[in-house]
Amino acid sequence: MRVESAEGIAFDIDVPVAVIGAGAAGLVAALAAHEAGAEVLVIERDPVPRGSTALSAGLVPAPGTRWQREAGLEDSPELFSADIMAKAKNEPDPALVARLAGSVGPALEWLSHRHGLPFSVITDFRYPGHSANRMHGLPSRSGEELVDRLARAVEAAGIPILCDATVDTIYTEGDAIRGLGLVRPDGSRERVACRALVLACNGYGGNKALVAQHVPELAGALYFGHEGNQGDALLWGEALGAATRHLSGHQGHGSVAHPHGILITWATVTEGGFQVNAEGRRFSNESKGYSEQAAEVLRQPDGLAVTVFDERIAGIARQFEDFRRAESAGAIVAADTIAELATRLHMPEAALAGTLDEVEALKREGRRDEFGRSFAGVPALEPPYRAVRVTGALFHTQGGLVVDRDARVLTQSGAPIPNLFAAGGAACGVSGTGPGGYLSGNGLLAAVALGRIAGQAAGAMAMA
User: Which of 394, 409, 436 is the last residue of a domain?
Assistant: First the structure.
């Protein structure tokens, strides 16, 4: 990744707004910039728009939406902000938290009203740390559907997406961005001039050296993000003198089916399930959150665990396309008795049965366990039982370039780089410095809310 002077450079084309990355952040930014009246070009290194969005469950947390009101759910940006700050132990920038919490609901309603995305709110379970049911998703509850629908909206708006094009150079003129250079698979090069640039190329989860530097505890973990997330935005930003923050922040996940590599919804835990290691014993407080659970799982023998739940919970989980795929792939083990389940999992029957008895006693008595998990009000598991073998994984990084309330990238002195914007994983998010600060949905919160903010500001600047 290079930053070079634009002096003497002949550009092949000139566009008002260029967006690097065609995941949720980039596509939302493109729609917003186009709505502001600017011509936009989206540049994507893959053959089709995918990004880490396609690997997610596609759920966006948003407070005070019409879908919540229709379901009789009480929520507000203030309550959402408080949840974000509490989960991240007050590490995030309160102003950015408030900005995103207040912007994401209107962004979803705009995507629904203007671009036909059929969101709905999940009402049958709540993710850890959220004080209200505020997760919104599309019918399949998959990130693939989210990015596909956004890509279709971009195409319907007449915004070109240049795929199979890898940006490797940013050209500057003084303190401002003048354009970018890209390379095609055949080695040919093109240079694109722009008046505003949006970095929407996520973080550095796919860059093993940067992960080892900033998140050493997950250096050897399965990476469940997009391999194209090589830290381009971070490296360009640092070369431009941009400020960075919370580079150790990340989202892990303690529930990726092994060896199938399919994300298993955390509802398997929050609705009354639990995790055991190969010895049939629990090892942590699973209710803290799926992000911090990744490292807990990886500390177990062979870096594996088993999530135990039942058919009632499986029924809830089947609203997610990923879970249905996991069932079709044979990742979900079914058994009528604990003895049968232990046999199928090659696990000590006495230990697994004893663990289940302990958990169910805690549920009946409404007590906390030795790890601090409260089982008050948690439904009992009933046969037939279900289980899935899982591993821990790194999904995406949460630290990045520091931005202001208009998604402008700031220098180390706090001044904005004149025409450079960042959204999604390219920007420092609202999860603080470690995995425990990640509140479910923070990744797509920054992608959708900050993507729209960046696009609006970049479009307005380009048309000024």
Answer: 394
Judgement on whether residues 311 and 352 belong to the same structural domain of the protein: yes
Q: Are residues 158 and 277 in the same domain?
A: no
Rounded to an integer, what distance in angstroms lies between the CA atom of residue 362 and that of residue 357?
9
Number of domains in the chain: 2
Range of the domain at 180: 2-249+398-463
Domain boundary among 373, 394, 415: 394
Alpha-carbon span 233 to 160, nearest angstrom: 22
Question: What kind and span of H or E run contains 97?
Answer: helix 94-115
pLDDT tens per residue, range 265-314:
999 999 999 999 999 999 999 998 999 999 999 999 999 999 999 999 99
Treating both helix axes as pointing N-terminal to C-terminal, what angle do 143-156 and 24-35 enclose, rounded to 10 degrees?
30
Both tokens of residue 380? 């009992």
CA neighbor of 446 nearest in space, from 181, 171, 169, 199: 199
Of 136, 153, 150, which Cα lies nearest the Cα of 57? 136
| CA distance linking residue 393 with residue 253, whole number of Å | 5
